[in-house]
């Protein structure tokens, strides 16, 4: 998308936004229409911040859909670069699109990533009658014969579902990743159907997409791509436990403008940590199928930086970007 088109879109979006609240009241931009993950992040986190006293005025939510989050990103970088009272909802889709230059030349270092406090864990899944009993067995089969295993996922080629098994295979010193077969379908349910039906040997997706199939006994989860096992699914091992140091989750978090002070950054990090520690957020996660995933402040910024670099390299390796 050209800068001129971005500017036009930003102008239209800003004109459609309702009048701002009293100065110094925080604003959270959800880079999408009402409903969905980014809107949930702004509304839930903003509400809890106010409810627990982390902010003294209700957080205003502004929906700014367009360009898969790129419209809001461009607006923040070019129009709100030093706004101390602005937070923006983000997720793993944000880091993936930045890594793949999907935001018309925008880069991850043009904002500051404050933190993530919940996530939909990545999973690697097989059908109940699959011969593969562990992630290691699946990886060994691919290394021996890449054509023997095909993955189905709910993202397009080069999307995050596609990249998850590639990250695992690279940890296993398998670098000929163009040979890994991936079929992108319309959502996680279709990917599960492909795998249960025997059309693919494995599914790559998120935990929320497979819970129903797991409870019905149609599938087995070989690994969750989290730091620790998921409460309620304690029998499923992590990839890290099995020797593959990969954490790949659809995290829910925030970024803020780049040109704010360290004091402002630390203040927002502290507010977000207070939400993460609250009973209200624990209930919101349970009600919405999120697992604990708390990285706040400099720790999260480092995580995003490394994730963007890895996704950028993988995307080049498989030819998604030049």
Please provide a written account of the structure.
This protein has 322 residues and is of the alpha/beta class. The protein has 2 domains: 184 residues, D-Maltodextrin-Binding Protein, domain 2 (3-Layer(aba) Sandwich); 104 residues, D-Maltodextrin-Binding Protein, domain 2 (3-Layer(aba) Sandwich). Helix 6 links the parallel strand 5 and strand 6.
Number of β-strand runs: 10
| Number of discrete domains | 2
Q: Mind telling me the C-alpha Rg? A: 20 Å
Taken from the alpha-carbon principal axes, the silhouette is globular
CATH class of the largest domain: Alpha Beta
Would you identify the regions where 5 or more consecutive residues have pLDDT less than 50? Answer: 1-23
CATH fold-level name of the largest domain = D-Maltodextrin-Binding Protein, domain 2
Give the proportion of residues in helices. 40-55%
> What order do the helices and strands follow?
HEHEHEHEHEHEHEHEEHHEH
Structural class: alpha/beta
**Individual helix count:** 11
Euclidean distance between termini CA atoms = 17 Å
Largest sheet: 10 strands, mixed
The percentage of residues in β strands lies in 15-25%
Q: Any guess at the CATH architecture of the largest domain? A: 3-Layer(aba) Sandwich
What is the assigned CATH homologous superfamily of the largest domain? Bordetella uptake gene, domain 1
Question: What is the average per-residue confidence, as pLDDT, rounded to a whole number?
Answer: 91
């Amino acid at each position: 998308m050209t800068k001129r088109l971005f500017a036009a879109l930003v102008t239209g979006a800003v004109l459609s936004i309702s009048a701002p609240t009293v100065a110094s009241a925080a604003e959270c931009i959800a880079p999408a229409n009402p409903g969905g993950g980014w809107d949930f992040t702004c509304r839930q986190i903003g509400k809890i911040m106010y409810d627990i006293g982390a902010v003294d005025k209700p957080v205003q939510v502004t929906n700014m859909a367009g360009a898969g989050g790129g419209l809001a990103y461009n607006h923040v970088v070019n129009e709100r670069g030093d706004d101390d009272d602005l937070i923006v909802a983000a997720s793993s889709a944000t880091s993936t699109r930045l890594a793949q230059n999907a935001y018309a030349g925008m880069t991850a270092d043009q904002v500051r990533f404050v933190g993530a406090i919940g996530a939909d864990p990545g999973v690697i899944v097989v059908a109940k009658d699959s011969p593969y009993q562990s992630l290691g067995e699946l990886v060994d089969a691919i290394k021996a014969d890449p054509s023997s295993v095909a993955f189905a996922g709910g993202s397009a080629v080069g999307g995050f579902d596609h990249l998850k098994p590639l990250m695992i295979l690279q940890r296993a010193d398998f670098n000929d990743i163009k040979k890994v077969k991936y079929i992108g379908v319309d959502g996680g349910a279709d990917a599960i159907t492909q795998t249960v039906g025997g059309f693919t040997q494995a599914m790559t997706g998120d935990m929320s997409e497979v819970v129903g199939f797991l409870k019905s006994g149609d599938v087995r989860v070989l690994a969750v791509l989290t730091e620790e096992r998921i409460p309620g699914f304690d029998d499923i091992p992590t990839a890290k436990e099995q020797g593959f140091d990969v954490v790949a989750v659809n995290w829910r978090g925030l970024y803020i403008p780049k040109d704010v002070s360290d004091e402002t950054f630390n203040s927002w990090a502290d507010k977000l940590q207070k939400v993460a520690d609250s009973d209200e957020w624990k209930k919101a996660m349970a009600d919405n199928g999120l697992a604990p995933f708390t990285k706040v402040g400099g720790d999260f910024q480092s995580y995003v930086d490394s994730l963007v670099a890895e996704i950028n390299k993988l995307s080049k390796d498989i030819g998604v970007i030049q």
